[in-house]
Every structure is written in structure tokens, then in C-alpha cells.
Amino acid sequence: MISKNNQKQFDFLTIIFPYKGYHKRIDETKDQIKIDNWEINTTKWEIEGNNPVAMSKMYENFFFGIKEVKLNDLTLQVSATTDIYLKLKDEKLTVQLLGDDATSVRLYQEKGKEITKVLEPGDRFLFKLN
């Protein structure tokens, strides 16, 4: 059972991770938590948001509760705090909206390339860099 005292607004993030055998469990005693090959809150991206959470593996990232993420000269901003999936590989950025509501997503590079799209829950688009 999980509860919060003296707080009117809060969120819980639940990850269901089936595993076989005690030695493959999520080890809550470690400083750096990993779920299989996914690292929790260790990412190359700078994250801004309301208590944001990141799950990252190689080129893939799940971001929860984000408002903005940055990597080098690339910035992604959303119109309202939401959850997204990003995959950056071979100069291509895949963005998928995981949140419950339609959200405006703005991607831009410092070099001037910019795109803004409204995504519905589950929508995905590909942004070609350079």
C-alpha cells in the first residue's frame, strides 16, 4: 500500500516488470536502479518537468512528467507536462506521445531547423536531423 499525507496533488508511476528468479528482481538497495538493461534517471538528456522520471537504454528513452528535454543543440518542448518516448539513432529522432491528452510538441535545433506538431495519445512522428 502506498499513501501520501498532507498533499493534495501527486502522481505515482508504476512499472510492471515480470522477471524470473529472485536474482533478476529490481534491487532497491542499489544507488543506480536498473530494470533489465534500462537505467532509471540516468540519461544523456537534460530534463525539465514536474518530478520527471527517465528510463534509458542505448538510443531509447521513456520520459515521464516532462516539459522539456535537451541534448546538445536539440530541444523538445511540450505544451503541457506529459510522457513521451524518444529514440535518437542515425540522425533521426522518433517521438511518440504516451500521455493521455493531445499535446503540442515543438522540436528545434540551434541551427534553425524547427517543427511543431500536435500529437494525439499514441501518435508518433519522425524528425530528421541535419
Describe the structure.
With about 130 residues, the protein is mostly beta strands. It has a domain at about 40-130: Chondroitinase Ac, Chain A, domain 3. It has strands spanning about 35, 40, 45-55, 60-70, 75-90, 90-95, 105-110, 115-120, 125-130. Strands 1, 2, 3, 4, 5, 6, 7, 8 and 9 form a nine-stranded antiparallel sheet that branches. The N and C termini lie far apart (about 50 Å).
Chart the SSEs and their pairings.
Elements: E1 34-35, E2 38-40, E3 46-57, E4 60-71, E5 74-89, E6 92-97, E7 103-109, E8 114-119, E9 124-128
Antiparallel strand pairs: 1-2, 2-3, 3-4, 4-5, 5-6, 5-7, 6-9, 7-8
Distance between the termini: 49 Å
Q: Which band does the percent of strand residues land in? A: over 45%
Helix content percent band: under 10%
Q: Tell me the radius of gyration.
A: 16 Å
Order of helices and strands: EEEEEEEEE
- Supply the CATH architecture of the domain at 42-128: Sandwich
Shape: globular
Return residue spans where pLDDT drops below 50 for at least 5 consecutive residues: none
